[in-house]
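EI: anyone free to look at a 251-residue chain?
SC: sure, send it
EI:
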Amino acid sequence: LFCQEQADFFRSKDQEALAKKERLNVDEWIDYPDQRRVFFQTVKTPFWVDENHTEQGILGVSRDITEHYETEKAIRIAKEIAEEATKIKSNFLANMSHEIRTPMNAIIGLSYLAMQTDLTAQQRDYLAKIQSASSHLLGIINDVLDFSKIEAGKLSIEHADFTFDSLLENVINLTAEKAKIKQLKLQFNTDQKVPKYLNGDALRLGQILINYVNNAIKFTEKGEIVVSVKVESETECEVIIADRFFPSSKL
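SC: here you go
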């Protein structure tokens, strides 16, 4: 029925089941003389004729699972291709993080500075629209990039020197116009004990503060928004800074 190599394989599995005196599961390709190739899931069980376990033979039951096997293989290959494509996309976006954010921050910052100069009503309106659209786009970009970094397993906290004053100045630049439009007073109070020079992830800390201030502006109808910054605890190598309504931010 089968070639010598195939028959030898069957015999070896039969002998293995007899030697172990237990059921043996075998998944195997079988090539028929008519060129058919079938994938079988086979169970080989030894049986005996007396209480001394004198072997009588092997009972084998095979199921043709070729279609099921090929379907699973196709799904597995498709999944691997999709995962690789997702990984390439995530790596690309994650590596572009700073390259995208830097010019967007420049547009927002420069448009804010331009609005502090003497402008016509039309020019001020154009700049306000540029700043608003840029801030919104930056928020979308940050969400996409952070999600892509998480997918790529590259989301990490940076450790770089920065000044807390410059971080707050950037927060003010990106939120002051929104507060002004709603006629809200935006005030930042920084305790003198807050260190001027710090080392940490200024970009992510800034994103957190900007998000919280923007939310405060969004849900405040009138009056003022006060951000009070103080030192909650401090050691030789670490300081925890907290404020009145923000969660503690470790630097």
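EI: Residues 121-152 form the longest helix (32 residues).
SC: 👍
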